[in-house]
């Protein structure tokens, strides 16, 4: 607890209420109360995109190695495994709490991070990377994509998903002067937008932004699709599912990109 002070008009110090200091990012994501799982609808759609890209394991050929970077509790990796029988899926996260939960869902759960030390994998060692609802939490997304590009083989697949700043309802909220859904102005609470839960979003993207950003990081965008958001009020869910037909309006952006071949 820290005691904040202000001054009165005559310059005398005046104590204010005690206030908890904001958590560091590491403390925030190590908190078990912070959600680490992707929505099932997003995970299923992303897994099917990857299954179409990789295809089945061919007779006499080794299985593909798929890294779920930022795997959280392993739920998205477990869903991917059902769509990718025979392929090798490895969950990767730096949160020990998340890895303990992931170990119950995936056969391999490895500690790794996208920071200074990098991921514990060789250059070009992965055939595909799942990057589900991670990029919006990063201070340095450029360095993160550089690291993902390093561990992917040339032509390897990147399956990225992230909330859409330009989702259909956010366009209406902004016109009304309301803070968009998914955006956050504080680590302590929600201010000025719908919702009640802080999830630590630092950056938000549109489909247009990703079409420019990913090629700048050495990836070729193959396809952008849309996915619904599980927290949309029930009466609006049919409209949210319909918006997925036009990805630029969808709640969640699903991107299939490939590492460019040198």
Description:
- It is a single chain.
- This protein is an alpha/beta fold and 262 residues long.
- The chain has one domain: Vaccinia Virus protein VP39 (Rossmann fold, 3-Layer(aba) Sandwich).
- 28% of the residues lie in helices and 24% in strands.
- The protein is built from eight helices and nine strands.
- The protein has a seven-stranded mixed sheet, sandwiched between helices.
- Helix 2 (40-54) crosses helix 3 (75-83).
- The longest helix has 15 residues, at 40-54.
- The protein is globular.
- The termini are far apart.
- The relative contact order is 0.14.
- The model is unreliable at 1-9 (pLDDT under 50).
- This is SAM-dependent methyltransferase.
- It comes from Streptomyces paromomycinus.
- Residues 1-25 are annotated as: Disordered.
- One of its GO terms (molecular function) is methyltransferase activity.
- InterPro entries: SAM-dependent_MTases_sf.
For this entry, give a set of tags.
disordered N terminus; 7-stranded mixed beta sheet; methyltransferase activity; Rossmann fold; alpha/beta; 262 residues; 9 strands; two-stranded antiparallel ribbon; 24% strand
SSE layout and pairings?
Layout: E1 2-7, E2 13-19, H1 25-30, H2 40-54, E3 65-69, H3 75-83, E4 88-93, H4 96-102, E5 108-111, E6 126-132, H5 141-151, E7 152-163, H6 168-175, H7 207-216, E8 219-227, H8 237-243, E9 252-259
Parallel strand pairs: 3-4, 3-6, 4-5, 6-7
Antiparallel strand pairs: 1-2, 7-9, 8-9
InterPro entries: SAM-dependent_MTases_sf
Pfam family, one: Methyltransf_23
Region (Disordered): 1-25
